# Entry
Amino acid sequence: MSFKDTFMNGEQGLFKPGSLTPMQKLILRFVVVGLIFYGFAVIEGMIMRIYQIEPIAAIPDFQYFAILTAHPLVGIFGSTYSIVFGAFLFLVPFLMKKPLWSYKLGNWTFLLITIGTLTFWLAGFISHYAPLYTLYWPLPADFSQFSPLGGTFFIVGIAIVMLGAVFFVINIFKTIAYTPEGMEKQPAGALLADAIGYSGLRNLFRKKEKQKEHLVSLPVAAIARGTVDVALNAGIILFTGVLILVYLVGHLIGFDLKETAIDALLYKNWFWWGLDLIADGLVLIFVAGTWYLLAMMITGKKLFMQNIARAALLVELIVSWTVWSHHLLSDQAQPAILKIVSGELVTAFELITQGLAFYIVLATLWMARPLKMTNELKFLLGGLLGFALAVPAGIMQADIGLNRILHNTQWIIGPHVHVAILVGLTMTLYSAIYILFPIVTNGAKLYSQKLANFHFWAHLIGGIGMGAFMGMAGLEGMLRRTIYLNGEFNLYMILAGICGGLLLLAFLAFFYNIVMSIGLKGVIGIFTPSKLNVKDLVPVEES
Amino acid sequence: MVDSQLVLYGQTIAYTCYAIVIILVMGWFGIKITKSGKSSKASHALFYTFVGLLVVLGVSLHIVTYNTIPWAPMDINRADIKPDKVFDITVANHQFILPSEKLVINVGEKALFDVTSKDLTYGFGVFRSDNSMIFQMQVVPGHRNDILWQFEKPGVYTIRSTEYSGPKGAQMILKDVIEVTANE
# Structure
């Protein structure tokens, strides 16, 4: 095939958008939009990398901080939520062997996340509303630095995303519990109890012969437990958003409310409790669940120590509710008991729960050797390495002594956050995309294996390298969330910038590879309606 | 008291060694599982040993740091320690307001920095001339933000906000306002 033919129709013309079910189109829409938002986050990241070397004259400082505010939110909500929600809305019915409870609600989740992300991104871009994602009170209501109108649109955008997240939560739990038409009645309560871990917990107190068998598979249990944190987080962020909106709208209509009515430290505890449901909750649980699923799909075998893995997911869920205080180790008014118990000891549990998941996946792969080094396997190993590097870096800063000299430095955002997200999480998601690609495209073929190899190495080296150089700068005192005007840390920032460039190239190679695999017509075809039955996950004749 | 620079050196060495080892282990693992050979069972004993190791590591890190980093116990018990000097500092409108033009401290003295915010959440960090950090804390409005510190080396030090407080926060720098003098 000529280049033009491949570009228009995809590799060997194998991808036929007309053959896709509505569910296949839905997941592909989530993935395409998620990748576009990932592209936004990568470009924003590169702008900031350059700015850290030499402030760009065309971008004033207030715009830089607006980019810094939008960057993680676009990455987490626009990209990760889209890809993860899309994949799980497909996988839960796939694994439960029944249709998604509501295709319409799934579509609404897709639309709300896309529209909400665009809304807050545009509000930040136009109005430069930039309290950063931490929103420390009363900064989000500081109208001497930020426009209340811009802030209103920004918060509304976040609220729309959260509404999409709530619809996702309803759809996941309903899909687990409901009985589809024509099927034998399913025990809704027992299914839910098993999915969130309640029945497993009760089994611990039953005699062996009276223990009940699991009704849902391990990956579904992982998705359900992570979804509990999605629900709690959506509630916290919606509540926080409404609180800020009250101040913003109040100012717009001429009432300046008293900022001191909200206690800044209490707010900070509230905010971090909610945010850690993502960072230390659903991300870790979803990632562990995805690792388990990938390991089983790659090896075709059962997971090593399956019951321990299941129990560890429940421990992780409980840990995620009690771990937030490690963000407040430098807050002198925070009670010492919270710093020690929640901030240090409970946080250290993450080393154990993530370590367990890491070991279980490696053991499962080991038992199935020899394996072929497929794209999904190499990206899974990259994802495992990412968390093996990032979790200990996080445990080190969650220490009263070390936090005093690490808090708010580039150490936090480099070796911990960016290595966890870019190497650990993103490479796990890439692994899932590579393994699901033939299933959701009805057998489309990847355009270039060489590009996939380049994608892997450039992303791995770029992600680890960027995190490492940011970390080195952090250990020498470089702060995050500020601007250095005199090139104080230029050696590290230039090296981190080169690694950031590798990440950008890796993404471009991957995106080009996917477009060439399914063709331009295929990309457009994903967004046209499907004529097939919404209840079918894959075309009936192929299922 | 041990200088914070020494603690950072220790951390750099420990983490770098760990990072190199785990990268090599994963590389070796990747090669090993794709080489032809017979699949084998994974040892349960090894698994439980690994879990035990994680528990020991997670708990011992904090015990070790509490007993080797002197500012950790000093911070927890600061209410019971009498400072040699107290500096009341106010922050408002993105400005640090110091009690005097220079804060002069002798090496080895315990200095208490008591910082009050009148509006936003800020940070209070003290930095060496080479921009490396000595220590920092958060400055939250409506609460007491105090930190006790013992300087080990003479020199001049800079105060800088370590928390984002809007675009204006990046300029919150007071260069060389702390003077630590050697004991005669």
Chain A touches chain B through 85 residues (CB under 8 Å).
